[in-house]
Amino acid sequence: MTSAAITHGLFHLAIKTADLGRTRAFWTGVIGLREIARPDFGYPGAWLACGQPGGQAIIHVYAGGPALGPGGQVPHGSGAIDHVSLACSGYHAYVARFRAAGLDWREFLVPGTTLWQLFVYDPSGVQLELTFEGAVEGGAPPDMSAARVYRAGSSFFDPLAYPALTALTPPPRSGEPHDATP
User: Fold this and answer.
1) Mind telling me which SUPFAM superfamilies this protein's record contains (predicted)?
2) DSSP letter at 53?
3) What pTM value is reported for the model?
4) For a tag site, which of 12, 53, 83, 105 has the least CB within 10 Å?
5) What contacts 140, CB < 8 A, 6 or more positions away?
6) pLDDT in single tens digits along all 182 residues of the chain
7) Among 97, 96, 106, residue whose Cα is nearest residue 152
């Protein structure tokens, strides 16, 4: 037993959703995480892990009663958290996935570094920042045109225009509804 207080890293991020099927499809079909076994907490959800063998469940999704806010609705967005950043590779492959899924996204070059970034929203309005080491990525650098550049503090999430992701939607797991709410 140690008496030192040490933080080793982020263990997971929990996301509330009104549409478990579409959220699962985004995180697995677009972002490339894989679903792993999840304990039975008595409400619907999913644990999603990085694709490599032994990858940790970094995203926990939950739906149903525990996902509802005080008004009985699942909240959108990330509250005081601006975005979640994931270290990635395959910049142009992600752009192709966003296009194929009908998603809107933004691009950025981190000033004074070789880092490239993509910004996209999940179906619950959680903003993701995918960060890439540009020195090892092939192809053109991020599009910094006015229509595509990321601007901190400026949301481009529109829940009414968010795609259905039906082509990416995996079948519901046994005993679990496709959508957690009607």
Assistant:
1) Glyoxalase/Bleomycin resistance protein/Dihydroxybiphenyl dioxygenase (SSF54593)
2) T
3) 0.81
4) 53
5) 92
6) 556 767 677 788 999 999 999 999 999 999 999 999 999 999 999 999 998 777 788 889 989 888 887 888 888 887 778 899 999 999 999 999 999 999 999 999 999 999 999 999 999 999 999 999 999 999 999 999 999 999 998 999 999 989 988 766 554 444 444 444 33
7) 106
Contact (CB, 8 A) for 129 and 84: yes
For the chain, which domains are there? 7-68 (3.10.180.10), 77-167 (3.30.720.110)
Helix (H) or strand (E) holding 98: helix 91-101
Q: What whole-number distance in Å separates Cα of residue 117 and Cα of residue 67?
A: 30
Cα 14 to chain centroid distance, Å, stands at 11
Q: Closest by alpha carbon to 119, among 78, 166, 160?
A: 78
**Number of residues assigned to the chain:** 182
